[in-house]
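Slide 14.
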Amino acid sequence: MAHDGVTPRPVPRDVRIDKRQVRVLAHPLRMRLLGALRVKGPATATTLAELLDTNTGATSYHLRQLAEVGLVTEARDRGTGRQRWWQAAHDVTSWEPTDFDDDPDARAAIEWIQGDQVRLLVEHAERWFATQHEATPAWRDAFGMSDIFLTVPPARLAALTAEVWQLLERYHREAEHEPVDPQARPVQVFLAAYPLLERYR
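Slide 15: predicted structure.
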């Protein structure tokens, strides 16, 4: 199962997105808006526009589109007057690629979302490589990537992925109940498994 987005809340609330939601979510700004709300917490369209280097009209429009399919909601306890606050409706988005096999538009949308996740990983990695010399030795050793080659059937790979995801969720939950460490920083962990191409065998 694919997952996207972990946020600083006590217990992740997972949404298994449907065809309508995936078609709405497959948009560069909407992906960034939902991610920002999950990482930063409730915000106004103006704040999000400044954060994402766009304009308030665009953020307001796309927030309403996300709200129509239940991916974001108004944070009514924060609103004052005409100022609307928005929050992510869920902490984690999940799906199975085969959920959309019978809907070409939804399948194309989920493929775009997966490609956007890869682009985001590359973007984050390149920014880190360009600035890693400024980090402390502890962070430089903690960050990074690694890989391993396995020969497994589909069911075993699915079990492995589920087990690793459960471990990540446990760390996520425990971090919310531990004393604040002054050295702690927001970290995004990508979990991926892909087939080894024939030419490498």
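Speaker note: The longest helix spans residues 104-131.
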